[in-house]
Amino acid sequence: MRWLVAVLIVLLVLLHQDYWNWHRRDLVAGALPATLVWHMGLSLLASAAWYVATVVCWPREEESHDHVEQEKQP
Predict the structure, then answer these.
(1) Nearest-CA neighbor of 11 among 37, 49, 59, 66?
(2) What's the start-to-end Cα distance of the chain, in Å?
(3) Per-residue pLDDT tens for 32-74?
């Protein structure tokens, strides 16, 4: 599952380079530039990827170990 997170991050880095959008002048919904909408979507994907990364890659053993140590301290 950690490989999936690594692939997601590499994919986000590649998609961020959006060279195919550099010369677009059209507006989405008559108000927003297409490149801005692209980066808004990319930001949402990035936040979802980081959420998945924390859920998948966060060490659960250290969390429970820290909790036990805090209970033992006077």
Answers:
(1) 49
(2) 39
(3) 888 888 889 999 999 998 898 888 887 777 656 555 566 666 5
